[in-house]
From TrEMBL:
Keywords: Acyltransferase, Cell shape, Cell wall biogenesis/degradation, Peptidoglycan synthesis, Transferase. The keyword Heme does not apply. SUPFAM superfamilies: Acyl-CoA N-acyltransferases (Nat) (SSF55729). This is Lipid II:glycine glycyltransferase FemX. InterPro entries: Acyl_CoA_acyltransferase, FEMABX, PG_Glycine_Bridge_Synth. It comes from the Bacteria. Pfam families: FemAB. Belongs to the FemABX family.
Length: 383
């Protein structure tokens, strides 16, 4: 993450206090890389949580910001888990105590029994070629069995300092846990052309994109607003792929909240073949980053490759919009060909790009007895 504000001076003392959504959004707009989970609008999407925007001040100057989602404890509703997904937006390159100590003091004073945060920092990355080789190699079962193609010393240092300061890692080995995934698949866009991106894709992806544009008149991808049609296809996808779908009103709330914050923040892509909806996807953008957030596809007409057509339209629009990264979101780190999750990384690796491990999510207990009770409760319900 690149931080555009000047760092606080060594002798300055940062303070943390609540800020308005307007102040928070203004700060987000000064940054090149901020997760959509750290925008004020996301607090309006997560209606089951109480949200709060916080600002870090160096004197009178706002130098950091974060969206906090407060989750009450069952039967102890005066205490909350204070969650900062993929945040906060601070300068992670120096000492952490000047930033995180005032955060802890503020949240404890306002009833938090623990803080959970996810620094938006990578630690390692593996190229598409490495991932492909790892899947084919019989002795390799996980990404972390291979040396990384790239490492980020800032992310590694932050993980070490969080651990030393008493923070507890929450990201499970299989990659998916309570919060947001530690492993993601990303396609770098900065400095590249459409031809560059196509050359970086594997042969199957290129062939499927060509097939989608040619098959019996071709697949037509449009940006639309028919959330009901998307949701029907999404529920169909959930039944086929055996996951629990979100209700329609969740997507209606998401589109309303994010669009109100910025008309270009969220888009719905609909792929049709001869009038039939064959695929759909949701794209979110903040600053220099775009996310493939949700997708759906029809079991019928899979041969026309509507999902590839949707992805290519979103990648092209993200590139044209000046984005640095197209984020395909979470993967598990498995490379075991017999693991049912390996298909997810195989689909995403076809885009080229890279698998990236992030610092992951960390907890700081502020009231240890309440934290232990909460942890036992979550383990009892399978988290």
């Amino acid at each position: 993450m690149h931080f555009s504000e000047p760092a606080p001076t060594a002798d300055s003392r940062l303070t943390v206090r609540s800020i308005s959504a307007t102040e928070h959004l203004a700060f987000v707009r000064t940054q090149r890389s901020v997760s959509f989970l750290q925008t004020p609008a996301w607090g309006r999407v997560k209606t089951e949580w109480r949200s709060e925007s916080l600002g870090w001040y160096d004197g009178r100057r706002l130098v950091g910001a974060g969206l906090v989602l407060h989750r009450p404890v069952p039967r102890l509703r005066r205490f909350t888990l204070a969650y900062l997904p993929e945040g906060p937006v601070i300068d992670w390159t120096g000492e952490l105590a000047p930033w995180l100590d005032p955060l802890a003091a503020h949240l404890r004073a306002h009833g938090a029994f623990a803080i959970r945060l996810g620094p938006p920092l990578p630690t390692d990355a593996w190229s598409a070629a490495q991932v492909k080789e790892g899947i084919a190699a019989p002795g390799t079962s996980r990404l972390t069995d291979m040396p990384a193609d790239r490492t980020d010393p800032v992310g590694a240092r932050v993980a070490d300092r969080l651990r030393a300061a008493g923070w507890l890692p929450q990201s499970p080995e299989h990659g998916f846990g309570v919060g947001h995934p530690q492993f993601k698949y990303e396609l770098p866009l900065a400095g590249r052309t459409e031809d560059d991106l196509l050359r970086g894709m594997n042969q199957l992806w290129r062939r499927n994109i060509r097939k989608a544009t040619r098959a019996n008149g071709g697949v037509e991808v449009t940006v639309g607003a028919d959330l009901k049609a998307f949701h029907e296809l999404y529920v169909h996808t959930a039944e086929r792929d055996r996951f629990t779908p979100r209700p329609l009103h969740y997507f209606e709330t998401m589109f309303a909240a994010l669009s109100a914050e910025d008309p270009e923040r969220i888009r719905l892509y609909l792929a049709r073949h001869q009038g039939d909806l064959v695929a759909a996807a949701v794209l979110i953008r903040v600053g220099g980053r775009a996310w493939y957030s949700y997708g759906a596809s029809s079991t019928e007409k899979r041969e026309v490759r509507g999902s590839n057509a949707c992805q290519w339209a979103m990648i092209r629009d993200s590139l044209a919009g000046g984005c640095d990264v197209y984020d395909l979101r979470g993967i598990t780190p498995t490379l075991d060909a017999d693991d049912p999750h390996v298909g997810l990384i195989q689909f995403k690796v076809g885009t080229g790009g890279r698998a990236v491990r992030y610092v992951g999510e960390w907890d700081l207990p502020l009231r240890p007895m309440v934290y232990r009770a909460f942890d036992l409760y979550m383990k009892g319900r399978g988290r």
